Amino acid sequence: MVNHSLMTNALFPKDYFAALQQVPLNNRYADYSNSAAARAAQQRSVNRREYQPGDPRQSVDWRASARSQKLMVRPQQDAPTRGLVLCLDRSASFLLESEDRDFAQRRLALALGLRCLQSKAELTVVAGAQFCTFKSVAQSNALQDFLSELSTQPGADVNLELVPKSFSTDTLVLLGSPWSSHEGIAQASFFATRLRSLLLVSERECNLPHQKLMLQHASAEEQLNVDWHASPPQSRFDNYVETQLKQLRQYGFDSASFACPPTADAVKLIESSHEFLLH
Questions:
Q1: pLDDT reported for residue 174
Q2: CA distances from 268 to 16, 18, 118, 149, 261 (A)
Q3: CA 177 to CA 115: how far, in whole Å?
Q4: Residue 202: HSE in the Cβ half-sphere, 13 Å Cα cutoff
Q5: pTM
Q6: What is the pLDDT, as a whole number, of residue 147?
Q7: Maximum CA pair distance of the chain?
């Protein structure tokens, strides 16, 4: 049985939170909070239609009705707007043989989630087949527990069909890998205004052979030299990553790749992801 308290210490040590405090609060989410009254006023100004028999009583806009001297109702498509949706790939293609990628994903998710909640915006996390919403900074510990307790056993690809049809959000962020399937997030633009994705590249994937690889035959113990000069594995992998990024951009995502630091270096992760956290 996994001791989740120890896992939390390994995932989110004190120096991780100290480094996160050095990153200025995201103005985008601050604007989300500070403009609540403006958005409410904008919603009130949206064209209302006259009441029809069968309309639910809770859809009546009493202020608009008073102004027009007629009973007016809100359009059914009006839906609450949330600040941020985090999509975490927890599939086999993401987790296998890559502890540094798993740690980087959960640390980035907590960093983005805490900053969203601190700005009084609402956070939703879709982790594989799990769907969970956090509505206030008072739920910060619950968010940390949720991320700490995510299984390290391969699960499902991100599935946005879990999201309610009436859902709408300001920003959706996908934290995946170059091997992640994109089928489950292809419709993200239907309910998110801004789409971002970060493909997490493991330390091993950043250090593939460049030109020559020396192998030793298991039985004959002879040296075998493999020359990759014509098509180096690192170049081929980098080209593959760029192809994946282009596909995400076709879906409307602002996409980039991110080299995961060693699992023990939580501070380096925050320091090297400043630009992503700020925007």
A1: 95
A2: 9, 12, 22, 23, 7
A3: 23
A4: 17
A5: 0.74
A6: 95
A7: 94
SS3 54: coil
Tokens 């799990």, residue located: 130
Q: Are 267 and 15 in contact (CB under 8 A)?
A: yes
Per-residue DSSP letter, 154: -
- Residues in the chain with pLDDT values less than 70: 1-8, 26-47, 75-82, 165-166, 210-231
Q: Which residue has the tokens 């493999």?
A: 226
Task: Report the b/e string of 95-109 with b at 16+ CB within 10 A.
Answer: beebebbbbbbbbbb
CA distances from 76 to 50, 79, 166, 265 (A): 13, 8, 9, 49
Cβ(188)–Cβ(168) below 8 Å: no
CB 218 within 8 A of CB 191: no
Beta bridge partner(s), residue 168: 81
Nearest to 234 by CA among 254, 259, 267: 259
Beta-sheet strands, E only, within 26-144: 49-50, 72-73, 81-88, 123-127, 130-134
3-state SS assignment for residue 107: helix
Beta strands 72-73; 49-50: pairing state: antiparallel
CA distance 277 to 270: 8
